[in-house]
Every structure is written in structure tokens, then in C-alpha cells.
Design goal:
mainly alpha, 2 helices, 3 strands, about 10% strand
């Protein structure tokens, strides 16, 4: 049994095969790109977390770094000055405050900060 295909039919089949191969290639390529982007994001976060710990040691840090206490979360740290206490959050690039950090900032701005002493006997 011999199958006879016209030139148009053969061209159509070849185009469909090329399109299918292209779609498979694009699918796997998008997976590789997605993984790569995820790794870059993760590295960026790790770099930010590491660099946050060194910012107080940099000469551009506006206060005495010996008076800075690193917390890490939900804010980066607290700077203790003689006339004020400053909650500090370091940001780089296009990063912005998290929802929790915005809530903390708003509490401070609204005077909702308190000092409590808890005695344990």
C-alpha cells in the first residue's frame, strides 16, 4: 500500500511538525528560564540578608555602629542614641517595606510604642 501525498499536504505536515517541535522547545526553555529566575531571586535575597549585617560597619552608616543591635526580622535592627531610639530597616534596589514592616512604621509614627518592665523573681 503506497500513500501518495501532494506537495501541499507534505508542506502542511512539515509545518505542523516544526510547530510542535517549537512548542515543546519553548515549553522546556520557559521551565529553564523560570528555574534560573527563581535562583537569581533567591541569591538576591541571600545577598541582601548578608549585606544587611555589614551596613552598620560601613562609613556611610549615619550613627555609631557600636550602638546598633541587629534583629533581622521583622526589622533589621535598633539604633540606640542618647536622645532617641531608631528602628532601622535596610533596603536596596527596588525593594520596599513588607506589610508587617509598614504596620510597624505606622505604629511608631502614631506614637503606639511603649516600654514595659517585666520583673521575674
Amino acid at each position: 500500500m503506497e500513500i501518495q501525498l501532494s506537495l501541499t499536504e507534505l508542506l502542511f505536515i512539515m509545518i505542523v511538525i516544526v510547530l510542535l517541535v517549537s512548542l515543546v522547545f519553548l515549553y522546556f526553555f520557559s521551565k529553564v528560564i523560570g528555574t534560573y529566575k527563581s535562583q537569581l531571586r533567591s541569591q538576591s535575597v541571600k545577598f541582601g540578608q548578608i549585606s544587611e549585617q555589614f551596613i552598620p560597619l560601613h562609613n556611610l552608616f549615619p550613627w555609631d555602629s557600636k550602638q546598633f543591635r541587629f534583629l533581622g526580622s521583622p526589622i533589621d535592627g535598633i539604633q540606640f542614641e542618647e536622645d532617641q531610639i531608631i528602628l532601622v530597616e535596610f533596603k536596596s534596589g527596588n525593594s520596599d517595606l513588607t506589610t508587617k514592616q509598614r504596620k510597624i512604621r505606622n505604629l511608631v509614627q502614631n506614637g503606639k510604642v511603649d516600654f514595659q518592665v517585666i520583673k521575674v523573681k
